[in-house]
Structure prediction request, 216 residues.
Amino acid sequence: MAAPGESGASGGGGSTEEAFMTFYSEVKQIEKRDSVLTSKNQIERLTRPGSSYFNLNPFEVLQIDPEVTDEEIKKRFRQLSILVHPDKNQDDADRAQKAFEAVDKAYKLLLDQEQKKRALDVIQAGKEYVEHTVKERKKQLKKEGKPTNVEEDDPELFKQAVYKQTMKLFAELEIKRKEREAKEMHERKVEMVVWTAGETSKQIRRGRKRRKTGPS
Prediction:
């Protein structure tokens, strides 16, 4: 792969710019290839700091678009599960196990049509939120007599904004789920304490009754 300055050196600024864009494109292609084919990169991606929230979106875990078919989901699962399987990565088995569990969880979630629909609803909500925000900002800029161009006009930046908002929504739902679980667990503990106290009280009363009715 040629570096930016290795071609077009005598051809002026245009050739240098063209060489740089070629170099940049090749770098991106390699990054894309590695993200798909390299076990190490996939394990790193799925176990990086904050992965417990990054991995809440099953489509992001499997690196697939929400519109893909069930057959494509299965195919992608097989590819990733082989890449990150602990048996194939014994030099990093602990993290490989965590990565495999994330892939397996995402796949099973997408097999459940109800769970899949919930994930799709979250993604759609994230997109609609960004679209609404952009619309309101453009309206405000127009009202102020300013150009209505915003950074999300760039498709890539719009995609990034949707990704961030979607991740935030998944995280908020997960936090609420954990709060519900904690509340339910607390309520069960309280019920158990109350039940235990009641049973203890009954035993004490029965013991007193036996003593009163026993031989003098």
User: Anything to note?
Assistant: The chain has eight helices and no strands.
